[in-house]
Amino acid sequence: MMDGFESLGKIFNVSLIYATFRASTPIIYAALCAAITQQANILNIGTEGIMLVGAFTAVAISYFTGSWLLGVVVAMLAGALIAMLMALGHIKYNSEICAIGMGINLFAIAITKFLMKVLFNTNGTFSDPKIIPIPRVHLLFLENIPILNQLLNDWCFTEWFVILFIIILQFVFYKTVWGLRLRAVGQFPMAAQTAGIHVNAVKYQAMLISGLIGGLAGAHLSLGYSAQFVENMTNNRGFMGVAAMYFGGANPGLTAVGCLLFGFSDSVGARLQAYGIPAQFVLMMPYLVTVIVLAISMIIKISAARKKESSVITN
Question: What beta strand segments (E) does 23-130 contain?
Answer without folding.
Answer: 125-126
